[in-house]
Amino acid sequence: MASKEGGMAFSRKSYKLTSDAERSRVTGIVHEKLLSDYLHRVFASPDHRPAAATSRKPLNFQNLPEHLDQLLHVDDKEDEESQEQVEGRLGPSTVVLDHTGGFEGLLLVDDDLLGVIGHSNFGTIRSTTCVYKGKWIYEVLISSQGLMQIGWCTINCRFNQEEGVGDTHNSYAYDGNRVRKWNVTTTNYGKAWAAGDIVSCLIDLDEGTLSFSLNGVSLGTAFENLSRGLGMAYFPAISLSFKESVAFNFGSRPLRYPVAGYRPLQDPPSTSLVRAQRLLGCFRAVLSMELDPVEGRLVEKESSEWQLQGQPTVLLTLAHIFHHFAPLLAGPPEQAQTVVHHVLDLLWLFMEDYEVQDCLKQLMMSLLRLYRFSPIVPDLSLQIHYLRLTIAILSHEKSRKFLLSNVLFDVLRSVVFFYIKSPLRVEEAGLQELIPTTWWPHRSPREGKEEVREETSEERLRRRAYERGCQRLKKRIEVVEELQVQILKLLLNNKDNNGGEASRYIFLTKFRKFLQENASGRGNTPMLCPPEYMVCFLHRLISALRFYWDEYKASKPRTSFSEEAYVPPQIFYNGKVDYFDLQRLGGLLSHLRKTLKDDLASKANILIDPMELQATTMDDLDEDEEPAPAAAQRPMQALAVGGALPLPRPGWLSSPTLGRANRFLSTAAVSLMTPRRPLSASEKVKVRTLSAEQRTREDIEGSQWNEGLLVGRPPEEPEHPLTENSLLEVLDGVVMMYNLSVHQQLGKMVGVSDDVNEYAMALRDTEDKLRRCPKRRKDILAELSKSQKVFSEKLDHLSRRLAWVHAAVYSQEKMQDIYWLLRVCLRTIEHGDRTGSLFAFMPEFYLSVAINSYSALKNYFGPVHSMEELPGYEETLTRLAAILAKHFADTRIVGTDIRDSLMQALASYVCYPNSLRAVERIPEEQRIAMVRNLLAPYEQRPWAQTNWILVRLWRGCGFGYRYTRLPHLLKTKPEDASLPSLQKPCPSTLLQQHMADLLREGPDVAPSFLNSVLNQLNWAFSEFIGMIQEIQQAAERLERNFVDSRQLKVCATCFDLSVSLLRVLEMTITLVPEIFLDWARPTSEMLLRRLAQLLNQVLNRVTAERNLFDRVVTLRLPGLESVDHYPILVAVTGILVRLLVHGPASGTERATSVLLADPCFQLRSISYLLGQPEPPAPGTALPAPDRKHFSLQSYTDYINVEELAQVEQMLAHLTSASAQAAAASLPTSEEDLCPICYAHPISAVFQPCGHKSCKACIDQHLMNNKDCFFCKATIVSVEDWDKAAHASATSSAA
Questions:
Q1: Is the bond into 863 cis (omega within 30 degrees of 0)?
Q2: Burial of 308 by CB count in 10 Å (0-12 exposed, 13-18 middle, 19+ buried)?
Q3: Mean pLDDT: which of 466-470, 609-613, 823-827 is highest?
């Protein structure tokens, strides 16, 4: 080992004490008296009383071993005997879990045989040692708070997957999950436990009693009269369900909550502890003094100033200490020392590598467990203490690299170090003292009515006191977060490459494997990182990443700040970074490399090795076969079945499409074969695969003629680098992390805020009832007062917990991290889009993260923090709007899921005023292209979201279309007001104008679009009617029937789709009425006839008295809340008013004639809109007098006087026109009616077959099909048909 501080190189072997001759030669290094004084000071007697200089024996390196043996001598004879044979105890002195025979079921046991995870239904395991006499105790650390039964059992107890500890005779257990005790039968006992709690299990075999304690508080005697006597001995035992985990302490470590009179099952190694303590005292003495050979004296020094130098006397002294100390290092010291770095230097110098490595491994395992399960105290001192010790260890270069390479990601879930757990009980974190005053936001209990109430002075004082408490809590949490960031800064250090690879590149390899396990190995449950850990890890990693990014900018001015960070597009297609089986925008990577290989060569100067493409093609044909050696190298984990079983194979290896097609890239990266000279622009770079573990610093960062990760730079990208290539890979991993589980976890944590709102609303309702309740009803007042107290206590608890969540998860700094990540994704997508066809190589998760991070900023961080406060907020909204507008219909994106996500994101985007204005701010060309894509025919694509977008652009302009919630739903339970569907109307006249211009633009745009809308309306309403028929039939049966909730949901969806399609038609008629009313257009008459036919069908189905629709609405079934008369009738009314009232005179006349000519038209349906019921048929019962009839006049809050007047005008016009048409109509024989619709006279003949129908039927048919109705011959032309003219022509010909 090389000493970094002393600047002097020496080897461990040179100073190893091998012979007496060698010892003799080194005694003269310093003056003998000075050496003797030095050694006496270092190896002083245990009582620390210095012997007189005249009476003490001179010490040198020849007689030092004898003196050291005397110093370390402990009278341990009695201890050893007691350790081996303790009365009342049987079994090995070192107590562990019996993983060889004392178990039932499948269990995962830790390497130290003290931790266990359930891996089957209800597994059981006991210890290796039992007791039959005396008082004994052991502790269990609860790692998860699920179903477990902890206690004692005898060797004769037999367990299975259904019966565990406490379910048989002579077995006793405590269950804190169900708060019960078990011994064949069960009764209530104790209190609930939580993760991090310590359960103490105590047995008194002298009195025959058994009890338990939780966190040092006795739960009382659980069982009495235990069976004792010959053959009765009790083992510690546990039964636990799947994924539950605990850690035992039988006494190998000091008990957290010892109980007087009770003895741990395993005695502490007292002799070894005494020896270790004395050796540590000697070691401290070495660090606190210095030899001055020139002056011949000893110099006192602070231990923190001590430096390891090449003084042979000091080194030989330390060698003697470590010669005795190394065998005692079974566990770590638990106190952080300022000299940890020097201690680790000495450990690596004087001990064998495997000894140091095992010591470090055990040390980190202990630190991880201590940090994870330490109780939360107000100042978080325990967590800070363990993190500082971790930092001290990781600050040592050699130790850090060993731990990174072999322990942190391979053995431990090191992400735990970056997690700040939320207290399950407010009391345990001292939040009552930290936040003595509670407060919660007051929201209006009713949606649809704005209730603006000024804050009272008392509420203002409470809020400010609460905010001060939150700030105190936040500052304490920030101390822990800063320490966690320091750990990551150590792991990302790339300057420690003296004698090996720098820490950052080891971290990159492990980090990528960590991402792969969480992205691809979802069948391998124990290896997945919990989402709550991933959230904290993400924020700490962003802080460390930005620190190094900006530090590099300071040293290289031509690079970019972290505020301008993005991932260059060449990383996605040059194969340098492994994306496992994650989908690309253009599909499978193997497919893209084949189809776009010419583009890669021309735009990025990259050639894919033909052999690799061929290998991939052949690999696609292989079955799921794996060579035996590869199978033998899979990860193994110790199980409690006496052997190791392979963990489940990751799903991506078994996928016949994803896994095999990508295999040559899923575990390898493409590396540049380093050229000897710079490449010209025209030269191509051939790439080959390179295993991720084989990558070196040069493969990542590049060299003089090698761009490393950035090989294959497209011409659109700048030549100067953004930052170090390794930081780009870390940034890419951060984006992937957010996509894996961070976003979902951020959404889950909002539940605390939702609970606060629900309880606050319940408390306000209760207080209102208390004020209204008569004082004579004391029974009701007592119940209401009790409810008020319960709600207040719950709100106090939740508001303090919410303060913790806001400080740890939703703080302003965390919001800025997510905002920075959003901007990174936007820049990455913009740069990738400029590469043209190569954009297809980008992983889908970049678009997903851009969408989801914006959603998180908008929905999860309020109301405490607002996205509008962030710098560059409007610009960011506009850039995201441009991306959504361009890529929701991008042909380069083929994945169905990501295309749906883009469409849904755009649909949500236009629901909010700020984001809708951002859409209006994008360049006009992009806006018009977006609207053109929205107006594409609905067939052959997901059209529901497209229609929803158009509806939102119109909402607020239509007839009676200014509501947020439907009128009949206002009295029901309020919904989440943040939902897009519940936003106030915010129409866009600019986008409406673009739509009108496009519909007028070409002869085919409007007909194809409207034909598809009418087709979907016909389908949606027909499906709705068919479903409500089934629902009505089920409701009328005498036997009890339950309608499937899924069927109800589909039924409601079809109704909502019908309404939205009608609104799109209303918008179209309003913006471009000539499409229907200008019959100079070839398709106008056909479109108008189809529209009239559908409107009449809807009106007839909905307005008939006591009909199917009316009966189903009256039922008010859960799931069909949105089904009502109002939304669909006002939509139809809006269309009719636009056609019959607002149109030009000629257009109104045409629309009236077409509407009246439809055989389904009934004037009473129009009268129904104004509350004029249909007269009862002869012989039927009169309707009930109290029956309410639908009328638009009842909705004056939503329909204004002018609109009602227009409906009355329309009814008067239709009444008059209907009477005139009835008087003028002539009877028509059945032979002259169209054989398709039987509603209109024959008016067209088909050529060449000669069959006939009305023009409306044939025009509608020809929109989708060119074959004749009757003979299936191809129709060449359609001619007008007039029976009279045809008859005269026939007679004249005759």
A1: yes
A2: buried
A3: 823-827
